[in-house]
Write a structure and sequence with these properties.
By secondary structure, this protein is an alpha/beta fold. It folds into two domains: 118 residues, Rossmann fold, CATH 3.40.50.2300; 269 residues, Rossmann fold. The chain has 17 helices and 13 strands. Strands 8-9-7-10-6-11-12-13 form an eight-stranded mixed beta sheet, sandwiched between helices. Strands 2-1-3-4-5 form a five-stranded parallel beta sheet, with helices on both faces. The C terminus is likely disordered. It binds adenosine-5'-triphosphate (ATP) and magnesium ion (MG). The site of magnesium ion has 4 residues, from helix 5.
Length: 407
């Protein structure tokens, strides 16, 4: 399926409601929303008020004029040809007589999916490119990388809009990196998937002077309710239909909202450093991503805070992980932290420094349309004799068993 399908059920007949819910619970591409709104759902299963059909029709008319892409499935216990005719004229796509049977519902869903895929692949799927940035562990520079890749792309072309999403659910702080404040962020949006549409997303974005749009996290990491299932994918889907580039700071915890972001990304950038605990976490993270079997070239690894005398360690790390690093971001703590203190990206405040130049010149090579095809991270066989790790650190769990399958 092109993306997750959000469904709302407005049906008083308990047996009919249960049949729908049971059918959808077996289909992983569908998500039945709990909210009452229909603002952003793709399909509404609506029961006809048989005593007052005109009231139902008025409701349908309003819904379809507000959301022309919404598909309404009507259900009723009687099949009156006159009523059916009027419903189809209004734009109802399917009529399902009660009692509902799988034999009738399944073909109706198959027809819906055909229409839906045609529509979505024509709009959302052909739009913006999504790049997710995830840290091998906390503090490696994930937010610095995500912010500066995004501003670099935005600075390179003012005509192509870019958005940055803070998906760190444990204290997202991208607002500080860009000195931007927003009253409503992802946390607010993720409470109820049925409310999500372009208008509410647009009203939640803060714009940076570079032109970049930021969706702040809002999550502080204190006992908050996790985003509703499907909401992250939905937010990113809407953002990519509005922007040419969407960058996501995924933090460093592989939780379900982050998996949704990674699943719908075109490119995943793993940020690591050449410190032993981080290398160990990188190996574990790549194994976890490997199990999800993303297409070759989708996952790239960059080393942050790289210094030239780490050449040998770099080579052995590549051997042990069975990949080539896609980028080496120079170490420059004073400049990186000064930029952060001023709430300015390196690409603007330190554009002439080595690190600023790395972002301004290296971004296109790293995440440009052809990056995935080049598959910079693929193709180096893991060495069986990675000397440093092999000889001295077997207890670190850094044995060289095999190349991570998806990287
Ligand atoms: N290339 C670099 N050289 C030196 N310092 C850097 C570099 N990139 C980032 N830093 C610094 O490292 C620190 C952590 O950066 P950042 O907040 O981006 O990491 P993070 O992985 O997002 O952390 P967290 O897990 O807290 O979200 C900051 O002080 C930042 O300025
Ligand atoms: Mg961070």
């Amino acid at each position: 399926m092109a993306r997750l399908i959000a469904v709302s059920i407005d049906c008083r007949n308990e047996a009919a409601r249960q049949t729908f819910e049971e059918i959808f619970s077996r289909r992983r591409d569908y998500l039945v929303t709990k909210g009452q709104g229909t603002g952003a759902v793709d399909m509404l299963l609506l029961e006809l008020d048989e005593l007052r059909p005109q009231q139902t029709f008025g409701h349908i008319r309003e819904l379809l004029s507000a959301s022309p892409d919404l598909e309404v499935f009507l259900t009723a216990s009687r099949t009156d040809p006159q009523i059916l005719l009027e419903a189809f004229r209004l734009g109802v796509k399917e009529f399902l007589p009660q009692p509902l049977t799988r034999q009738e519902v399944e073909p109706a869903l198959a027809r819906f999916e055909e229409r839906f895929n045609g529509r979505v692949s024509g709009a959302e799927m052909q739009s913006g490119r999504v790049v997710s940035v995830i840290g091998a562990r906390g503090g490696v520079g994930t937010s610095t990388v995500a912010t500066n890749l995004a501003t670099s792309v935005q600075q390179a072309s003012q005509r192509e809009s870019a958005a940055l999403v803070d998906l760190d659910l444990h204290g997202g702080d991208l607002g500080l990196f860009l000195d931007l404040h927003a009253s409503q962020g992802l946390k607010h949006l993720s409470k109820d998937i049925s409310r999500l549409d372009e208008t509410i997303i647009r009203s939640s974005l803060a714009q940076h002077s570079s032109g970049l749009h930021l969706l702040t996290s809002g999550y502080e990491g204190f006992d908050e309710v996790a985003p509703t299932t499907g909401s992250t994918m939905r937010v990113i889907g809407l953002l990519r239909s509005m922007h040419r580039h969407v960058f996501v700071d995924c933090g460093h915890v592989l939780e379900s909202a982050v998996k949704e972001a990674l699943d719908c990304s075109d490119q995943i950038i793993v940020v690591t450093t050449l410190s032993l605990p981080t290398i160990r976490r990188t190996k574990r993270l790549l194994e976890a991503l490997g199990a999800w079997q993303y297409q070759a070239g989708k996952v790239l690894v960059v080393v942050n805070r790289y210094v030239n005398d780490q050449k040998e360690l770099l080579s052995e790390t590549e051997d042990m992980l069975g990949l080539r690093m896609a980028g080496l971001i120079p170490n420059d703590y004073p400049t990186a932290s000064e930029a952060l203190d001023h709430g300015k990206p390196l690409t603007i405040m330190a554009s002439r420094t080595t690190i600023g130049q790395w972002y301004l010149r290296g971004t296109d090579q790293l995440i440009g349309d052809k990056a995935a095809v080049k598959g910079t991270a693929v193709g180096k066989e893991p060495s069986k004799t990675a000397s440093f790790f092999g000889r001295y650190l077997p207890s670190f769990g850094l044995e060289t068993k095999g190349k991570p399958s998806a990287v």
